[in-house]
Design a protein that fits this description.
With 481 residues, this protein is an alpha+beta fold. Strands 3-14-17-16-15-18 form a 6-stranded antiparallel barrel. Strands 26-27-20-30-31 form a 5-stranded antiparallel β-sheet, with no helix packed on it. Strands 21, 24, 25, 28 and 29 form a 5-stranded antiparallel β-sheet that branches.
């Protein structure tokens, strides 16, 4: 039996209306998603009162009147004056043993037990208490300063006993011991770092580079040569600290004149006089001048200090909402408060009457007719700020252009529009469009600014502003989100 011929027919297309609708919906959603991500979204921000947490801790360099004194002999130094102690002119500061035999002979002498006086015990107790109260693991290096201070104090007692043993010194040969006295009065200090002659105006960013900083301590029984550093005298109780500072912040602190300072090392507080320095490296520094506590920090070249100032409180807004805009400046006499026409021909005669209200403002602008004649129109304008010193209003360019001529109500004076100035502000969106409002910034950081509350031309608490000013244009209508 032969194969049957089979004829296959094409299956007719089965159009599923549900799939078509699903495809249209999917395409619509895809387009919406693309448009959404490509469109800049205008997000509102509600203005509220607040303050900024300001980091007021700074590291500064201490500047004093310091006079280095250099050795005039070769030998071993044994300090007599206690470090941090005031010495008068011609007071004994140290003795210099030229032979090196002094310490050997002193050790061989049987002096018996040394009994400390009440004054000496109080001095030791004061050193220990001051160190324990101010000690912090963050400043562990101060431990070595404390060790040297105690060591010099102990050796001073030995030197005192030595000087009292005149007969023993004569036996050793007094000619080998040189008595070195202070050339002037001051506080005796037994370290140097090369910054003794630094002036506040000479401080630069390299001054705070600790990688190259070296502090050389001098201790009793150190061998010195003629011309080597022996000690220095701090000759004035007045001293200062110089801090690197942001120029804007420095200008704000300068207005205070005096500010309270807390020293992190020991939590002592005192008042410092404020000065701003613009030094050779092009950076701004704050100098705090003091008339006390110099001896307390005689061991320190660098100090961490906290500036105790009141937090700035005002309207808190994001920095991203801040924008700058140019305005025309108009003299006060050419800007009229809320007015009403004095007659039917006020538009052409310019005869108007001021009502005394300050809710609206108008200008009398010269306008050319088709036949070339000129008439004056009263035009309502928006005022964005007023400078009381120059008596000028800030007005936008909605109804004004450079070269426009304004009149006073009596037509006796004219003013040609040309002068412009910039205001800092935000876009208020309470009315459904981007309405510029000027602001006065009290302080700002990288994220937020504190601005002054102003009920006439500026912001009020609970106003809505544009979060990102770059996403809108002036007077743009806004679909609030």
């Amino acid at each position: 039996m032969g194969k049957k011929n089979t004829i296959q027919f094409k299956k007719p297309a089965n159009i599923n209306i549900g799939m078509i609708i699903f495809g249209i919906i999917f395409l619509y959603l895809a387009v919406c998603v693309v448009i959404y991500f490509k469109t800049s979204h205008i997000v509102r921000y509600e203005v509220k009162e607040g303050s900024l947490v300001i980091d007021n801790v700074y590291n500064g360099v201490c500047i004093r009147d310091e006079v280095p004194v250099y050795s005039t002999h070769n030998g071993y130094i044994n300090y007599y004056a206690r470090e941090g102690e005031r010495v008068a002119k011609e007071d004994l500061v140290y003795v210099c043993d030229e032979t090196g035999r002094l310490n050997e002979e002193l050790e061989s002498l049987d002096k018996g037990e040394t009994v400390l006086t009440k004054t000496e015990l109080m001095d030791f107790r004061g050193d220990i208490e001051a160190f324990s109260h101010g000690f912090s693991t963050k400043f562990y290096g101060s431990t070595y300063d404390f060790k040297t201070t105690i060591q010099n104090s102990v050796l001073k007692l030995a030197t005192v006993n030595m000087l009292e043993s005149i007969e023993d010194l004569n036996r050793l040969g007094v000619n080998s011991i040189q008595y070195v006295r202070s050339p002037q009065s001051g506080i005796a200090v037994y370290w140097e770092d090369g910054l003794e002659n630094l002036k506040p105006e000479e401080v630069t960013s390299s001054t705070f580079d600790k990688s190259n900083y070296e502090k050389k301590r001098m201790i009793s029984n150190s061998l010195v040569s003629e011309g080597d550093f022996a000690y220095k005298l701090s000759t004035n109780e007045n001293w200062s600290i110089v801090l690197p500072m942001d120029p804007v912040r420095a200008a704000q602190l300068l207005e205070e004149e005096y500010i309270k300072v807390r020293f992190i090392k020991n939590q002592v507080e005192c008042w410092g006089k404020v000065d701003v320095l613009n030094n050779p490296d092009g950076k701004t520094y704050l100098r705090l001048s003091f008339t006390n506590s110099m001896i307390t920090f005689i061991q320190d070249r660098f100090l961490d200090v906290e500036l105790i100032v009141e937090d700035e409180i005002g309207l808190k807004i994001p920095v991203s909402s801040i924008v700058q805009k140019e305005f025309f400046l108009l003299p006060k006499k050419f800007v009229l408060d809320d007015i009403k026409p004095a007659g039917e021909n006020a538009a052409t005669t310019g005869q108007v009457e001021q009502t005394g209200s300050n809710s609206k403002h108008y200008i009398m602008k010269q306008v050319y007719n088709d036949d070339g004649t000129v008439h004056v129109e009263a035009i309502e304008i928006d005022v964005y700020d007023y400078n009381a010193q120059t008596e000028e209003y800030y007005v936008n360019d909605t109804y004004l252009s450079v070269g426009d001529v304004l009149n006073t109500t009596d037509r006796q004076s004219v003013f040609t529009v040309s002068k412009r100035a910039t205001l800092v502000g935000v876009y208020n969106m309470n009315k459904g469009y981007a309405d510029f409002k000027r602001i006065h910034i009290l302080y700002q950081n990288d994220e937020y600014a504190i601005v002054k509350s102003d009920s006439q031309y500026g912001l009020r608490v609970y106003d809505y502003i544009v979060l990102n000013a770059d996403n809108v244009k002036d007077n743009q209508f806004i679909n609030q989100k």
